[in-house]
Please model this.
Amino acid sequence: MQLSKVDKRSLAVTGWTKYNDLKNLTKSIVIEELDLLKQDFNNLVSATNELKDFTKDKTIEYNLAMILEKLALESVRRRANKLFG
Model:
């Protein structure tokens, strides 16, 4: 999981898919993996007061990336809990 600052009001949380071939990656798999990423991040935030304060009042953007020939390729972007929008 990677946390990065997009701007003053937005953060990006990026996780990597378990799949290594785009043809095996379906929309339902992407949704499931993004949901797990969101759950893992929320568990992390709940565990630390510093992270709670840091993320307070910020929009969180969830990204799923794929490792392909040693390059991280962003395959799907999920913003404000809304897929593809």
